[in-house]
Design brief:
Blueprint lengths: L5 E4 L3 E5 L5 E6 L2 E4 L4 E4 L3 H18 L6 E4 L4 E5 L2 E2 L2 E8 L2 H7 L6 E11 L8 E2 L1 H6 L5 H23 L3 E15 L2 E7 L7 E5 L9 H4 L5 H11 L18
Antiparallel strand pairs: 1-2, 2-3, 3-7, 4-5, 6-7, 8-12, 9-10, 9-12, 10-11, 12-13, 12-14
Helix pairs in contact: 1-6
């Protein structure tokens, strides 16, 4: 088997050159990180669950007309996606106070916000992904004003979709972060949802009990992370009940 060309390896995924021009193979790792990689652990099955869940959410968004980079899932750990130029921002949508928002503003975790709040962080691990304003984004040329108008619209549409999907299975969408990519068609560009949407990038709380079903389980040592992600997948019908435990295979490049 010919070795694939690795393009990039991050904390949670590896990107390989795709089989067709303009495509990338996205491999989901079992690595879990928190606090800017100060806390790290390999958790068997995490990558499989994130791959399945991200496929579910991306397909759902494509179906309702929200464009994404997702093409198809290739296997239990890989998916084929469109190559795109990532805007160097994390786009965060908050419905309830939690995490850094609670710390910054002194708002009790779980407090419902008056309306969804959209924040932007500059993607730079060395700087800790600092919070930035639209003024910073415009001044440093990370995105145009038209881009930012489109980014805001996309983020709120994702929020509407995700909130409804989660509410239907008894889960509260507290907040989430997404990345936006540019796909070029000649001189024209369009913006798409890129990277992944999974419990790694969302805060998900059981509506009745408040139990956390996201990466805070790992951040705060609240139990087994794979069990939490599997609960989300089972409720959504992505993984049937009583499925065998997913484990980590040997990675072959």
């Amino acid at each position: 088997m010919a070795r694939r060309k690795k393009i990039y390896e991050g904390k949670a995924k590896i990107l390989y050159e795709g089989p067709e021009p303009g495509t990338i193979v996205q491999y989901f790792k079992d690595d879990a990180t928190a606090f800017n990689a100060e806390k790290m652990e390999v958790i068997d099955g995490k990558g499989v669950l994130n791959n399945l869940l991200s496929e579910y959410f991306m397909n759902g968004l494509n179906t309702i007309g929200v464009p994404t980079h997702f093409i198809r899932r290739l296997n239990m750990r890989e998916q084929l996606v469109k190559n795109c130029e990532i805007i160097p921002l994390e786009v965060i949508v908050r419905n309830f106070a939690a995490g850094t928002l609670s710390k910054r503003l002194g708002i009790e975790e779980g407090t419902q916000l008056p309306r969804p709040i959209v924040e932007y962080c500059y993607k730079d691990d060395a700087l800790g992904d600092p919070l930035v304003s639209e003024e910073h984004i415009a001044a440093f040329g990370w995105a145009s004003q038209q881009d930012m108008d489109d980014v805001l619209s996309l983020a709120l549409r994702v929020n509407d979709f995700m909130s409804g999907v989660m509410l239907a299975v008894g889960i509260r969408l507290v907040d989430f972060k997404i990345e936006i990519g540019r796909i070029f068609d000649g001189d024209f560009q369009r913006l798409v949802i890129a990277d992944e949407i999974s419990p790694d990038s969302c805060r998900l709380w059981d509506i009745e009990t408040g139990r956390k079903l996201d990466k805070d389980v790992f951040r705060r040592d609240l139990g087994n992370l794979t069990d939490a992600y599997a609960e989300v997948a089972t409720r959504l019908g992505v993984m049937p009940k009583n499925s065998p435990q997913v484990t980590k295979p040997t990675l072959i490049n």
